[in-house]
Amino acid sequence: MKLGRYDEEFPGLGFADLGxxxxxxxxxxxxxxxxxxxxxxxxxxxxxxxxDRDSDIxxxxxxGEGKAFSAGGDYELIQSMxxxxxxxxxxxxxxxxxxxxxxxxxxxIVSAIHGPAVGAxxxxxxxxxxxxxxxxxxxxxxxxxxxxxxxxxxxxxxxLLCGMAKAKYYLMTNEALDGAEAERIGLVSLCVxxxxxxxxxxAVARQLAxxxxxxIRWTKYALNNWxxxxxxxxxxxxxxxxxxxxxxxxxxxxxxxxxxxxxxFDPDSPL
Length: 271
Known about the structure:
CATH architecture: Alpha-Beta Complex
CATH class: Alpha Beta
Distance between the termini: 51 Å
Strand content: 5-15%
Number of helices: 14
Radius of gyration: 18 Å
Number of domains: 1
Largest sheet: 6 strands, mixed
């Protein structure tokens, strides 16, 4: 497996060859809980196309470095989306492509979820074909807390994974789930003890890599038609999310997040 071209083309991500055709992708902004800056966000959208074309790769494992999987989009990126129309349009396209490129990537993807998993990082974690969460993981969509609609991946896959009632509850209240509760409601594939996470995720990735490539890839393709059929709902949710970046609530939500306080949204908003 030739990792040099990945390191060169996607410098905001880390890569490792785990052997047996398994590529490891590491979200590695550990000083910021792996929050996705502009570079990481773009690369998380487009790395899957390169993987899909790479005959050396038979499975992918995604994990976060340090104490988190990913804390979502970083504050600087969110602020630039509020302030600049071109940035908003670019990130909207990246957010759309991130979801569809994972769905359409033929290689099986395993995620190892520990610590906070929020926003764009959570999209990668839950769109993985096999999602494995540590018991102490903290899964949180995060959008309505900021004052925008739940976009990214949520409307596409949460109702399918855990049902509409649970999806509405967690996406609208922004209550966090630990790994055990996420497994109980069907949001993740497996929950394991924290110290077992990496070994279990690698074992599953290797198992998939050693299986019949056509059987695994075609099974994934067929199953993901459920997600493709929900494309219009996802597209609408993403448009509504990004419309929210031109409303006043996002400014209050971002300021509250930076100040680590509860947001005070306008109750008289006509929207």
